[in-house]
Design goal:
The chain is of the alpha/beta class and 208 residues long. Helix content is 28%, strand content 28%. The protein has six helices and nine strands, in the order ααββαβαβαββαβββ. A seven-stranded mixed sheet has the order 5-4-3-6-7-8-9. α2 crosses α4. Bound molecules: S-adenosyl-L-homocysteine (SAH). S-adenosyl-L-homocysteine binds next to β2, α4 and β4.
Length: 208
C-alpha cells in the first residue's frame, strides 16, 4: 500500500473539486478512483494531479481535473446513460464517464491517440463499457444514436448540427464553443428544441 498517487488523488478531489463547489458524489468518487497518472507521458507522471491541463502528445492536452469533473457533473448522470464523447485524447474523460454512466462511445480523429487510449482502457484498466471510433467527431457516431448525453472535449466554432440530431429527447450536451474565445455551453433537448446555457470561459484545443 505504498502508492503515492492515492494520496495525491485524494487531495485533488478535496482541494480542486469539492473545495470549488463540485457536489456530485458519483463524479467525485470516479475522480478519486481513475488513476490519472496512467494517462500521462512517463516524464509527466509526477505532475498528474497538478491543477491544470498537461500535454498528452500529438500536440493535444488532457484537461485540468476540475474541468473534467465539472463537465461530467453538468451531464447530470444517474448511471444508466449512453454517452457520446468527441475527442478521446488520452481516454481519461472516457474513463471517468465509464465510472459514472452505462456506456461510453468515444470518437477521436488522431489514430495513435485512439489506439493508445483503447489499449489502456480495454487492456490495463479492463473497462468493458467503452467503445472507440477513429474519425471526425463532427459526424458523431450514427450507428449507436440516439445518445442520452454528448460531451465534446475539443472546441468547435459552433456546436455541430449533426450531433444535435444524435442527441435523444431530454438529452444533455456539453461543449466548449467559440473560435477566438470559448465558453462552456450546456444544451438541453426538449420536444425536439435545443435550449443553450452559456457557462464559464474555457480554453480547449480546436475541433479540427
Ligand atoms: N478528452 C480528452 C482530452 C481531449 S483533447 C482526455 O480526457 O484526455 C482534444 C482531443 O480532441 C484531441 O485528442 C484531438 O485530437 C481531438 N480532436 C480534435 N478535433 C477532432 C475532431 N474533429 N474529431 C474527433 N476528435 C478531435
Amino acid at each position: 500500500m505504498n502508492d503515492p498517487f492515492v494520496e495525491l488523488r485524494r487531495n485533488m478531489v478535496e482541494r480542486q473539486l469539492r473545495a470549488r463547489g463540485l457536489r456530485d458524489e458519483a463524479v467525485l468518487r470516479a475522480m478519486g478512483k481513475v488513476p490519472r497518472e496512467l494517462f500521462m507521458e512517463e516524464g509527466l507522471r509526477g505532475s498528474s494531479y497538478a491543477d491544470g491541463p498537461l500535454p498528452i502528445g500529438c500536440g493535444q492536452t488532457i484537461s485540468q481535473p476540475y474541468i473534467v469533473a465539472y463537465m461530467t457533473e453538468l451531464l447530470g448522470l444517474a448511471g444508466g446513460e449512453r454517452v457520446l464523447e468527441i475527442g478521446t485524447g488520452s481516454g481519461y474523460q472516457a474513463a471517468v464517464l465509464a465510472e459514472t454512466a452505462a456506456r461510453v462511445y468515444t470518437v477521436e480523429v488522431i489514430p495513435e491517440l485512439s489506439r493508445a487510449a483503447s489499449g489502456l482502457l480495454l487492456g490495463r484498466l479492463n473497462y468493458q463499457n467503452v467503445f472507440f471510433k477513429i474519425g471526425r467527431g463532427q459526424e458523431g457516431w450514427p450507428e449507436f444514436a440516439p445518445y442520452d448525453r454528448i460531451i465534446v472535449t475539443a472546441a468547435p466554432a459552433e456546436f455541430p448540427e449533426r450531433l444535435f440530431g444524435q442527441l435523444g429527447e431530454g438529452g444533455i450536451a456539453v461543449a466548449p464553443v467559440g473560435a477566438d474565445s470559448q465558453r462552456l455551453v450546456r444544451y438541453v433537448k426538449r420536444d425536439g428544441m435545443i435550449r443553450a446555457d452559456e457557462l464559464i470561459g474555457v480554453i480547449f484545443v480546436p475541433l479540427v
